[in-house]
Amino acid sequence: MVLGNFLKNQSVFQPVKYLVYAALLINVFLFMAEEMSSSAALNTSVTSVASFFQIFSATIDTGAWLVLLIFFELETYVLSDHLLRTVVGWFIRVTKFLCLAAITVAWWGYIAELSGLMTSQPMSAGLCETLDASWSVLINLDQFEPFSASACGAGEWRVLTDYERVIASPAFLQSAVWLAALDVINASAWILVVIVLEIEVRVLLSRQRTLSLLSESVRRVKIPLYLILFLAAVYWGFEGSFLDFWDAILWLFAFFVIEGNMSTWRDETGQSQDAGT
Q1: Among candidates 228, 229, 248, which has minimal Cα distance to 240?
Q2: What distances in angstroms separate CA 48 from CA 102, 117, 166, one per listed residue?
Q3: What are the C-alpha distances in Å from 126 to residues 88, 129, 131, 150?
Q4: Does the CA dihedral 247-252-255-261 come out positive or negative?
Q5: 138-172, pLDDT tens digit by residue?
Q6: What is the pTM (predicted TM-score) of this model?
Q7: Contact assessment for residue 265 and residue 258, using Cβ atoms and an 8 Å cutoff
Q8: Is 128 exposed, middle or buried, given 0-12, 13-18 or 19+ CB atoms closer than 10 A?
Q9: Where are the beta strands (DSSP E) in the chain?
Q10: How is the chain split into domains, by residue range?
Q11: Contact status, residue 212 vs residue 203, Cβ threshold 8 Å
Q12: How far apart are CA 273 and CA 277, in angstroms?
């Protein structure tokens, strides 16, 4: 009841919606700053297209998703069905495809990061004495601190063989692996969600009743996907950074808005079809 009243109260809902969209834009720059800091700590730089996507995977992912979200908002709330069947709709579909391509590449970046974290070897006893300030210590996913000889001498350490001069304690490394795996699962779930939404948009624009049955079946797929995304946000809340948790919550709210738009659009389409029969 409270949720329904919130959706119907447009004077409250619309400003909140656009504030969330603005917060997501801010997050793009926050992720960029975080990844630039991580890159500086690792003494790495962009040397190729592949390295650019790997270093700035979260920034690219969030930016592409924001553009995708805006175009879903245009399709499901702002623009008329008639306009979406013109060249405007074609432009939106092409842009969304390019965004999905960028998201897929960023998804590959998450997989590459997970693969790199899973490749390590025990540090030999004498290696600690030879390390210098060019080395970094992994303290969490995408978080590094300068090497400290005093810390290195205590406890067990592993060398990340796919990174340049990085060591980590087994506990911190395992935590980073779990968070990297969560990034892959989260990105995979979101890609499936947007594919399902795209199918629904195409069905509604086609106005074919036979396809409505397909749309109803496909919509059920989103229930476990959104559950996975919610659980990922909860995990980040306990184990990850606040930025990851905050970003996940904002995205869930944003796509809750799109789902509300889709529900209204379906109702309007159904009423239009009934009136035409």
Answers
A1: 248
A2: 16, 21, 21
A3: 65, 6, 10, 14
A4: negative
A5: 888 877 887 776 666 666 888 888 887 888 888 88
A6: 0.80
A7: no
A8: middle
A9: 120-122, 136-140, 143-146, 158-160, 166-168
A10: 2-276
A11: yes
A12: 6
| Residue 12 tokens, joined | 């409250």
Pairwise CA distance, residues 243 & 79, whole Å: 32
Residues 6+ apart with CB under 8 A from 118: 177
d(CA 260, CA 252): 12
Tell me how far apart the alpha carbons of residues 109 and 55 are, in angstroms, rounded to a whole number: 8
pLDDT > 70 in the chain, percent: 80
The four Cα atoms 201, 207, 210, 216 give a dihedral, to 10 degrees, of: 40
Summarised one tens digit per residue, pLDDT across range 30-87 is 888 888 877 776 666 666 666 676 677 778 888 889 999 999 999 888 888 889 889 9
H-run or E-run covering 185: helix 170-206
Amino acid at 102: A
Count of C-beta atoms within a 10 Å radius of residue 80: 9
Please name every residue paired with 144 in a beta bridge, in sequence order, or none if there are none.
138
**Token pair of 239, please?**
């184990």
* Type of residue at 271: Q
Read off the amino acid at residue 10.
Answer: Q
Q: How far apart are CA 272 and CA 265, in angstroms?
A: 10
Decide: 123 and 154 in contact? Cβ < 8 Å: no
> Contact 99/65 with Cβ under 8 angstroms?
yes
> Which tokens is 110 given?
């998450």
Longest dimension (CA), the chain: 83
pLDDT band at 213 (very low <50, low <70, confident <90, very high): low
Instruction: Give the end-to-end CA distance of the chain in Å, rounded to a whole number.
Output: 33
